[in-house]
Amino acid sequence: MTTSPTLVPWLQVALAGLPPLALLACGLVPSSRADRGPRRMRAVVVGLAAATLAAAVAAVGLLALAGPVDMAVWSAPGSLPLNVGVFYDGLTAVMFPLIAFVGLVIARFSVRYLDGDPRQGRFFRWLAFTLGAVLLLVVSRNLVMFTVAWMLTSLGLHQLLEHYPDRPWAIWAARKKFLISRLGDALLLAALGLTVWCFGSSDYSGVFARAEAVRAESDGGRLVAAIGMLYVLGAMTKSAQFPFHSWLPDTMEAPTPVSALMHAGIINAGGFLVIRLSPLIALSHSALGLLALVGAFTALFGGLVMLTQTSIKRALAFSTIAQMGFMMLQCGLGAFSAALLHIVAHSLYKAHAFLACGSVLDGAARLKTEARPALEGVAAIAALPVAIGIAAGLCAAPVVLCGIDVAAKPGAVVLGLVMAVALTTLVWQALLSGSWKLAAGGIAGGLVVSLAYVGAYLGVDEILQRSAVAHAVLPTSVFDIAVSGLVVVGFLGVFAIQAATASLSRLPAIRALHVHAANGFYCDIPARRITARVWGLTTPVP
User: Fold this and answer.
1) Strands 83-88, 69-75: parallel, antiparallel or unpaired by DSSP?
2) Collapsing DSSP states into helix, strand and coil, what is residue 247?
3) Please, what's the b/e burial string for 492-530 (b: 16 or more CB within 10 A of its CB; e: otherwise)?
4) pLDDT tens column, 74-115
5) Model-level pTM?
6) What SS3 class is residue 355?
7) Which segments in the chain show pLDDT lower than 70?
8) What is the pLDDT of residues 169-213, one digit of tens each?
9) Nearest one of 191, 196, 215 to 334, comparing CA atoms
10) At what angle do helices 256-264 and 336-355 cross, to 10 degrees?
11) How far is CA 400 from the centre of its chain?
């Protein structure tokens, strides 16, 4: 690590540390004053967001020239293990520009979206505060800073969710999110306390060095396993994993820029936590197993419910739940490079999807196709081998291009099978069109996407390999094999249900399944009842 007090490390610290502080400072502006000068407030926030993106790009350039930096700017006097500083490595270099770019796009969109709103000054105040908190979370040098930034992010998001106080569902969703966030805070604080007590430090460098020593001993012990489990549970609350997911679909009453910020930025904090602390979490087979099982279930649950939603924003919300579940599954399988790539791709896609959802009807192309039962059988038979061939090429490409043994990568087999299932669905739909041109286009599209994914994965994997921290996992155990088997069975089962739905849609069981899925299988009822009880309400609805 580059720790010597020279000009370049200090410049790296300034580029990474000052923008979050400047954005957080906007939160100190009183709402009444911000509302009196909305033009000035939004100009300041957009300008800070643009400067943050420029600083992020410059910091990436310095990282390439000078390497990672781990520097404490201030340390507490005495023996108190507390300091403030910046930890900037390959993982930070990916997330920092991503958040800055998405934040700038959302800020510029908000200028038009909230034009004329009497509370737009307050909105921009808390938008800047929330962006600053997320950026501080990414560049934090230790777990104390990370936890503080984690809580500040929840505070800023809560204020944004309550932007329209006259909308009952908006306030209701904010209250539900408040309770789940406090649970996540408690889990993170407990994990932080145990980490300091067990490792004697909250600094990433100290914790990771101790974790590496524990890895060499091949026995993490129950305490290390408990720490990993607490961090995993905390990440699940932030990333809307089952059963902590119900707050996300209910936040659709918030302004669209808030939805974009949540789904493209804040919800990724759970995944970032797991990837950042992967050297520690990977010491616990039980923590990774829980991540894989809950992530797989959440992905399948969210994907199934998403298909039944009639509201565009709610469908996007359940899509986010499913995507975050798949990202957690990747982390649980030890495929941290694939999980980081998933975060980047999902953030860019979902930010665009929410900001453009108001124009979806204007640009929708309606393609009507007639059902062809005879063609369905042929398509089903032909799709599977084509998809398997593409997936096999996907796995073989790194070996041919870079000499990388994909089979040795954690989770490669399971994720390869999931990819084959996804490609089967894509190719199947292309073949069902009845047009050879569309079918060939669908197959070619699947191949191009697969190759693009391989290239992006190799790039992200190289970045993590060159980062300041090793992202390895313990040797595979019987428990890991059992978890992988359950994941594969689950994905194949849901694929079978989706494949059979079109031809069996008239059956009462399928119709009943559609109704239950449209209501999220009623899994949000307990959270509603708890929210009503805490706020002294008589009914579990606003």
Assistant:
1) antiparallel
2) coil
3) eebbeeebeeeeeeeeeeeeebeeebeebeeebeebbee
4) 887 766 778 899 999 989 999 999 999 999 999 999 999 898
5) 0.86
6) helix
7) 1-5, 78-79, 216, 218-220, 358-436, 438-439, 442, 446, 466, 468-480, 483-484, 491-505, 539-542
8) 888 888 889 999 999 999 999 999 999 888 888 899 888 888 877
9) 215
10) 170
11) 31
**DSSP per-residue string spanning 4-44:** S--HHHHHHHHHHHHHHHHHHHGGGS-HHHHHH-HHHHHHH
Instruction: Map 64-124 to HEC letters.
Output: HHHCCEEEEEEECCCCCCCEEEEEECHHHHHHHHHHHHHHHHHHHHHHHHCCCCCCHHHHH
Contacts of 401 (CB under 8 A, 6+ apart): 454, 458
Instruction: Kindly report the number of other CB atoms within 10 A of residue 467's CB atom.
Output: 18
Residues 144/87, Cβ–Cβ less than 8 Å: no
Which residue type does 205 have? Answer: S
Domain ranges of the chain: 1-139, 142-357, 369-472
Q: Do the Cβ atoms of 391 and 416 come closer than 8 Å?
A: yes
Cα–Cα dist 123/121, whole Å: 5
Are the C-beta atoms of residues 147 and 193 closer than 8 Å to each other?
no
CA 91/CA 343 separation, integer angstroms:
12
DSSP secondary structure string for all residues of 508-520: HHHHHHHHHHHTG
User: Secondary structure of 420-484 in the HEC alphabet?
Assistant: HHHHHHHHHHHHHCCCHHHHHHHHHHHHHHHHHHHHHHHHHHHHHHCCCCCCCCCCCCHHHHHHH
